[in-house]
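Table 4 source record.
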Amino acid sequence: MSDNRKLTHSTNSTTVADLLERLLDKGIVISGDIRIRLVEVELLTLEIRLLICSVDKALEMGLDWWSGNPAFDSRARAVGIQPTLELEERLKRLEARLESVEPAVLEEK
């Protein structure tokens, strides 16, 4: 009997680095749903979606949730500071006006 199957040697096997490179290049999606029901009443539903890919692949697919998010983007953090300072200044002005109005209201009563 002749066996045409080839033997795989360790030099021909895929390394972890090769596997990781392929995974990040192509991407992988893992999804699943968990539902907890009691007597035909759905109590809890968890929809889990996991995408593993490179940043370049994510941008190619239109996934860029991190850009513009102050938690992940330093440029968004810098932009987000200005409106906060403006709101704090406005709040101080309103509190000052309110303090000047309160004594007049109390005196009328």
